[in-house]
Amino acid sequence: MLKIENLHASVEDKEILRGINLEVKPGEVHAIMGPNGSGKSTLSSVIAGNEDFEITKGSIKFLGEDIDALAPEERAHKGIFLSFQYPVEIPGVSVTNFMKTAINESRRAQGLEDMPANEMLRKIREKSELLEIDRKFLSRSLNQGFSGGEKKRNEIFQMAMLEPKLAILDETDSGLDIDALRIVSNGVNRLKSKDNAVVVITHYQRLLEYIVPDFVHVLLNGRIVKSGGKELALELEEKGYDWIKQEVAV
């Protein structure tokens, strides 16, 4: 589904990614961990097409197609979704209207007609119940006045509505209490299928107790330096990153 080869990327002439190699297949959950400043959020931004970052070498292929030159909205229409670490507020645009617009823009890009209103309402009701979202929440301006947990839950609601092929969750667990973490994780787990894939970017092993990864990758200084199963996350929780830094140095 996603194939990244020797990816180098920089921002304002500062190189951040220094040769990323990663392959994600349908049905898989990959966790990317690493200390602050290692390039985790940069990687998610580059996959999603953030134009602040420049790819200087390597390639990103999604469903066999090179997407390096595609705009963020074109990548979204093809099925790439990024849950932001810090979701922005959009005053005056309700959650419901935002979702209607996003879904119908994506449908038009695929040559489909707008989703019928009754089908849209049914889908909104179904997905909001899945994430235990109060219906009043849907008429509020997008993220305006939302708590940290509400913002993150809203991001997963958007994911549920858009049904992407590849979902990238950038530190979705930051700022969440245990109840919100459980609800968000439950939503992600119920949306997983053999036809989609999830990349979870996190500092903490606790999220991975709820969203269990097939693979864990450690990002350090812009490169993936170690990969393993879910056990690797437990080892990182117990020992930190210093042992990996020493291993890489050797």
From TrEMBL:
SMART domains: AAA. Residues 2-246 form the ABC transporter domain. InterPro entries: AAA+_ATPase, ABC_transporter-like_ATP-bd, FeS-cluster_ATPase_SufC, P-loop_NTPase. CDD domains: ABC_FeS_Assembly (cd03217). Keywords: ATP-binding, Nucleotide-binding. It comes from the Bacteria. Belongs to the ABC transporter superfamily. Ycf16 family. This is Fe-S cluster assembly ATPase SufC. The gene is sufC.
